[in-house]
Each structure stands twice: as C-alpha cells, then as structure tokens.
C-alpha cells in the first residue's frame, strides 16, 4: 500500500508541473532540432504566467543565436504573447522577438499552443529561417499551453460540460473519459487547486469569486472553463 501511495504521489507531482515543451525552427535554433523545456518562473503584473528555459547559463548550444535561452511571456502593451530569445547574457534585457501570438484566448494565464491563434514568425529577426508561422507540422508545443479556445461552439463540439455553475460545494464534469488532471486558477492567475482528474471536484473551500478550471487529458489536450464559486 505504501508503494502504491508513493507511486501515485510521483504521478501527481509530475502531472502538475507547469512546464512547456517546445521543438521547432531547426535552421535557426539547431539542426537536428533540440527540444527545449520552459519552466514557469512566476506571474507578471497582469496575472500572466512567465516561462523560461533553464538553466540560464549559456550551455544550450544554438547555431543561429549563439545560445538558445528562451522566454514566453505576455506583452500587455501590444496585447500579445511573445516567444523571446535571450540576447546572449542571460538577462533578457534586450531579447530577440522570434514569434508573437495575439489571436489566442488572452483572458487565460497560460499562452496559446501552436494550434491556437497564430504564432507569427518575426522574419525581421529570423530572416525567414524558421520556415514561417508555427504549426503542428513544423513544431511541437505541449504542456501548460492552450490547446482549445473558450466559447459556446467549442463546448458544444467537445460535449464537455461542468455543472452547476455557479457552484457552492461540488463541480461535476460530464463528457470526458480520458481525464488526467485538473487545475483551478483564480482571477489573478494563481493556481489554487491541483489534483488527479475526477468527475466530481470539491470546491467548497474556495472563497467566493470567479475561477478557471483547466482539465488535462491523457493525450495532453487541455480544456478551460470559467465558473463562479458562490
């Protein structure tokens, strides 16, 4: 029983790690393409998560930029998510803008994946070496990213529902049979609850207000739902 408990604990901790895995733009970043892991390092003043590849030590060789140290963060002035390359000293003081995405669901604290909105290649910096905008054909971008957009049509198409809403004690989830984990964020973008997937979620301890429920499936698709805690 103890071994089973430790196994479940290990699975739970890995499921809730807030990371983004990326591979793409091999002509500029490296050939064959490297896979880079972004770790969440904090939340900005606009409640958006910040992700950085680690370690930031110049050790990740990169033919096009010298060293491949990257950051994904929100640019509130231009209302868009940006994929940045370090200028070479690990500070991101004057980083290279490699991609930007302004058409995803910008109300969420996590950035769009390569299938949501459009990650536009900044050819002024890359000279077109990345092969155009990010797609599922020329890149992979998985983990703590948006894979679906919110909206009535999406919810209807996926046949996934959460109820009741508003909720006092328990949220129930229907229409999903391959759930892996759930995460709940408050309106400030702070993670307030993480656990393995269950079709019945106890939210009785949450303070009243607005929240976003993130459901991750076993094939790492994600679904996001807004709800109100009474």
Automatic annotation (TrEMBL):
Keywords: Signal. The keyword Signal applies. Transmembrane segments: none annotated. The keyword Oxidoreductase does not apply. Residues 1-17 form the signal peptide. InterPro entries: Secre_tail (IPR026444). Pfam families: Por_Secre_tail. Residues 162-223 form the Secretion system C-terminal sorting domain. This is Secretion system C-terminal sorting domain-containing protein.
């Amino acid at each position: 029983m103890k071994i089973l408990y430790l196994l479940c604990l290990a699975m739970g901790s890995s499921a809730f790690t807030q990371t983004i895995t990326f591979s793409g733009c091999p002509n500029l970043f490296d050939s064959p393409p490297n896979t880079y892991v972004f770790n969440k390092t904090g939340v900005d003043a606009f409640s958006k998560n910040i992700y950085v590849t680690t370690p930031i030590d110049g050790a990740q060789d990169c033919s096009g930029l010298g060293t491949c140290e990257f950051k994904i963060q929100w640019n509130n002035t231009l209302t868009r998510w940006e994929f940045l390359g370090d200028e070479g000293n690990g500070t991101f003081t004057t980083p290279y803008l490699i991609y930007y995405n302004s058409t995803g669901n910008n109300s969420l604290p996590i950035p769009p994946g390569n299938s949501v909105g459009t990650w536009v290649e900044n050819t002024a910096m890359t000279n077109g070496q990345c092969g155009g905008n990010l797609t599922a054909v020329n890149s992979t971008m998985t983990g703590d990213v948006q894979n679906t957009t919110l909206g009535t049509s999406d919810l209807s198409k996926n046949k996934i529902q959460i109820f009741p809403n508003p909720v006092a004690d328990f949220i129930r989830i229907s229409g999903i049979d391959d759930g892996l984990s759930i995460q709940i964020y408050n309106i400030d973008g702070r993670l307030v609850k993480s656990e393995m997937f269950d079709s019945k979620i106890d939210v009785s301890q949450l303070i009243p207000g607005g929240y976003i429920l993130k459901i991750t499936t076993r094939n790492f698709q994600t679904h996001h739902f807004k709800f109100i805690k009474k």
